[in-house]
Amino acid sequence: MKALKPIVISGREVLPLVEGGKGVAVSNGRTSGSWAAAGGVGTFSGVNPDSYDEEGHVRPPVYRGRTRRERHDELVAFAITGGITQARIAHEIAGEAGRIHINVLWEMGGCERVLDGILEGAKGLIHGVTCGAGMPYRVADICAQFGVYYYPIVSSARAFRALWKRSYHRHRTWLGGVVYEDPWLAGGHNGLSNGEDPRQPQNPFGRVLELRRTMREVGCAEIPIFMAGGVWCLREWEDWIDNPDLGPIAFQFGTRPLLTQESPISDEWKRRLVTLKAGDVMLHRFSPTGFYSSAVRNAFLEALVVRASRQIPFASAPLDNCIMPFSVEARGRQMFIDPADQEKALAWVAQGLSVPLRTPDSTLIFVTPEDAATIHKDQVDCMGCLSACHFSNWSQNEAGGTGKAADPRSFCIQKTLQAIAHSSDIEHELMFAGHNVFRFGEDPFYNCGFVPTVKQLVERLVIGD
């Protein structure tokens, strides 16, 4: 195994080992501060980060606004307070060692306001901003204003080129690096384009090489690329280290920091990690963002799969094949379905799935009255956690909506991620994970239930394992 050489990231020489920023309180000040103290780059999440009361207990966000817009403003304020809190914790642990970054999602609700507020309130404590889930053109302007480095997350050279032409060429001084996130292997939301087959993963080397060539064309030859998604141990990436074709490379770890003593996830979640097998992570499109994302197959995800399978086309008036009148709603609203689908629909109703819910694609899904009530409540309670939400049809634009019907095939992502981050229920909530998560159960480092500290994990990574 080649010796790891320090690399300059956010103005300081550090190990080329970066903690991935996992959203909604899963990467926090304690994990990022510990990672930075161990010599790498720590990253806490700016997506709904926790704040605490006087006794150190997590202060759950309570929304009192009557309208979505009012609750959205509350959410932004909660995020700013939490982000400043986590930045202070990280700095206290790391001191002047290492570097501290914050990770935000461009498509999260109020991203620009949140980032402005956190960087203003935590001046000097945050050295870099990583940002993906969309095309973050404005992140360069915001970071340059505060003298903080920015790190766009992309999954192709084409995406970086578009960002460079639109915005980044004006702020090349503060471009600290580019995060290449493998869209087939990374956990959470992935950057698969419509032209890429989710079933046909591509080798990251060629895609990163193309990214480096694009960066060289615009004068960014020595700016580091962070390889993210699918990185477990560096022995498997040795040919990337000191490779002149790739230039400066750092490696980002999102999955492995989950299983550390500092990780804030529940003990139940940690125990589940070592039981997962290859194939237990699903790349799916149920997220209300509209992006592909990867999560563990559990009861929550399976319920979404089954719900979407109970789906038939309909029309409000006789149209094409939809000519059979059909109505089971309390108000007796009549719809028209394909006669070939009538038997299925009646069978679902007989099973207690008596509420057909309309989707934006002119289809009906069949759910129980209890599930219909939960879906409706979650949509009504929306607090605008995304810039645009398929599930609730919220948008932070002036109209306050996407212009499309709410999609009951999706879910409230704020609700479920808050729940899994702050409870022991790992079966009925969304559990994001990278596709290499099954390796916890195969890696001898974790034998006999061993859970390392962040420092022990970083030491393990340095030797290639």
Order of helices and strands: EEEHEHEHEHEHEEHEEHEEHEEEHEEHHH
How many discrete structural domains?
A: 2
Report the span from N to C terminus. Answer: 9 Å
Query: How much helix is in the residues?
Result: 25-40%
Name the strands of the widest sheet in spatial order: 3-11-10-8-7-6-5-4
Tell me which CATH architecture of the largest domain applies here. Answer: Alpha-Beta Barrel
**Overall strand count:** 18
Sum up the overall morphology in one term: globular
Mean pLDDT: 93
Number of helices: 12
Query: Which CATH class of the largest domain is shown?
Result: Alpha Beta
Q: What name does the CATH topology of the largest domain carry?
A: TIM Barrel
CATH H level of the largest domain: which superfamily? Aldolase class I
Structure in a nutshell:
The chain is α/β, with parallel strands linked by helices. Helices cover 29% and strands 17% of the residues. It is globular, with a radius of gyration of 23 Å.
